[in-house]
Amino acid sequence: MRVSERPADQSGAGWPGRLHVVTGKGGTGKTSVAAALALGLAAGGRRTLLVEVEGRQGIAQLFDTEPLPYAERHLTAAPGGGEVRALAVDAETALLEYLDMFYKLGGAGRALRKLGAIDFATTIAPGLRDVLLTGKVKEATTRTDGQRPAYDAVVLDAPPTGRIGRFLNVTAETARLAKVGPIKTQSEGVAALLRSTVTRVHVVTLLEEMPVQETVDSIAELTALGFPVGRVIVNAVRAPLLAGRAVSQAELRRGLLAAGLPAEKEVVARLHDEAREQVVRRELEDSLRAELGELGRPLTELPLLPDGVDRAGLETLAAQLVRAD
């Protein structure tokens, strides 16, 4: 059965598919969301793999652990006996692995590294780097352990939305350039997986104008390229400080006096300005939320974590994600 014909896997409630690609504009918290998703999908005795491909070691920093090697390693336990493993994919090491696997050039490949030939190869053929990165992700996603997949879910902390279309589509472009051989076969296999029911591409955003616009543009691009878009995840949502209409200075003054607090003119004026800003902010967020809703994708909101993204915060986000409809 070809990958494109496989039925969708159910790796968690509301999260069909086995490969979850998480992207988003820089600064939206996509690495934290990817980590929380891997943790949530591992709950209840499942095993997930969390992968990064940008060389930033963001996962290691998030979990306060040693830099991740080019190997699948235990990262953390999940509630209910599950496990999250992690992998940092390095293009150079992936190329050595590729040369050894298909051309039996393990020793020669290591010599090429010393000569700088690997950097040369990925420089003159930039697409090759992304083929190697996505190829490793494909291998982990499709690998079996007996009769079942090695991982219930693979979560990829992918490049940001500005590069995600090119990153995912490079395998298809390489497949057209390479007429025969292992590179063509691998490229076609990766391209098929990324467009199959096994894969979902989730976009992380904030309720701010630039991230929302980039989300809209990215989903349009991904859809045009044929990639299955999953959820729009709105991160760091603030609870509204005010409900309903803006209050007047007179109302603020009466409220302060009733509470036994200072109600000087300057204090009331400052509070009134802040309240007005909150109302404007809420109206903008409501408008952006409606714009995201028009995309027709499932929408999940995650709360702003006042204490930052620590382990407790990740578990809060994980629980919120897996409860998504």
From TrEMBL:
Gene3D superfamilies: P-loop containing nucleotide triphosphate hydrolases (3.40.50.300). Keywords: ATP-binding, Nucleotide-binding. The keyword ATP-binding applies. InterPro entries: ArsA/GET3_ATPase-like, ATPase_ArsA/GET3, P-loop_NTPase. The keyword Nucleotide-binding applies. Pfam families: ArsA_ATPase. Residues 21-176 form the ArsA/GET3 Anion-transporting ATPase-like domain. One of its GO terms (molecular function) is ATP hydrolysis activity. Coiled coil: none annotated. This is Arsenite efflux ATP-binding protein ArsA. It comes from Micromonospora yangpuensis.
